[in-house]
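My current task is to audit a protein record that another person submitted. I have pasted the whole thing underneath without changing anything:
***
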Amino acid sequence: MKNFAIVMKNSLLKREEAIIKFKEKRDAFLQAKGQIMRDIEEARTTYKRVMEQLPKNGFNL
């Protein structure tokens, strides 16, 4: 049987690495989400500006 201290140390190191990877992935996700939200807001404002510039016709309500 391996030394218990070595087994516990390896287990804790693996856990620490997993937590670091999780935090990196979470941060990347939050950055991507923020960029997507900014893109959506930009598209929304662009759409409003374009719709205001179009001439009015009988089909608009």
Observations:
- The chain is about 80% helix and 0% strand.
- The mean pLDDT is 91.
